[in-house]
Amino acid sequence: MADPDKKPAFEKVGECLYRYVATGKYYARFESNGRELRRSLGTTDRALAKRKLVDLQRATARTSGAGDRLTLADLCDRYLATVQNQREKTIYRKDAIARRIKADWPGGADVVISKVQQSQIAAWLASYDFGVPSYNLHLMFVRDAFSLAVADHLLADSPAAALKIKKSKKPIRKTPSFEDFQAIVANIRGMVHNPDAQHSGNFVEFIGLAGLGQAEATALTWGDID
User: Fold this and answer.
1) pLDDT of 12-44, one tens digit each?
2) Alpha-carbon distances, residue 86 vs 55, 90, 100, 152 (angstroms)
3) Given this model, what pLDDT does residue 1 score?
C-alpha cells in the first residue's frame, strides 16, 4: 500500500509539464505518433520550460515516427552513404567508427534511434582508451549521424547535441638554458658518422641565437642578411 505521506517524485504543474521534486527540473510528457514521449527540458525555470515544451511538441509533430523503427546500425549506414564523396582516408576512418558502433554499442546497435540516450553515447565513448583527437572524431560521427536523423524528420532532436568536443591540452615546451643549448649544438657537431654534422650544428646554433623557427630560417634569403 502506498504511503499517503510520501511525496511523488514528479508533480504535474501544467498540461504535459512535470517538475522533478528532488532537483526542481522540468520534464515534458505527451503523446506523439501514437507513443508516449518523456523528455527532460533541462531547466528549473518554469517559463523557459513552457517555451521548450512548445518547441519540442512542434518539432515532434513534424517527425515521421520512423525513429521508432530505424536502428542505430541502420542510421550508421544511412549516414555513411552521404559521405562517399569525401577523401578516401576520411571514408575509411568513418567506416571504422561505424563498425565500432555496431560491435561495441552498450546493449547492441540494433536499438531503435528514438531509444538512444545521451548517457549511452557518453558510455560508449568512455569505453575506449584513446586521446582527444580520436574522441572528437568518434563524437563528431555520432553527432553528424543524429543530425541527419533530425534533418530527415526521423527524430525531434539529437541525443548527442549536448555532448561537447574536448579541447587538446596545450603542450609544455621546456626552453633549455644557454648552457644546455651550447651542449646540444656541440653534441650535433660531434656526430662523427654524420657528414653534415657541422652544417647541422651551425644551423641549430643560428636559429637558437637568432630566435627563429625552422620554417622562418629556411625561408631566409641573402637579402634578409644585414
Assistant:
1) 999 999 999 989 999 998 887 666 778 888 899
2) 34, 6, 20, 21
3) 45
What's the length of the chain?
A: 226
Give yes or no: residues 196 and 211 share one domain.
yes
161, 143 contact by CB (below 8 A): yes
Are the C-beta atoms of residues 46 and 35 closer than 8 Å to each other? no
3-state helix, strand, coil in the chain (%, to 5): 50, 10, 40
Count of domains for the chain:
3
Cell of 141: 560521427
Q: How far is CA 171 from CA 147, 174, 177, 216, in A?
A: 33, 10, 19, 21
Place of cell 650535433: 188
Question: Considering the domain boundaries, does residue 161 fall inside one?
Answer: no
Q: Are 181 and 208 in contact (CB under 8 A)?
A: yes
* Contact status, residue 77 vs residue 98, Cβ threshold 8 Å: yes
The residues, any chain, with a CB within 8 Å of residue 221's CB and separated by 6 or more, are none
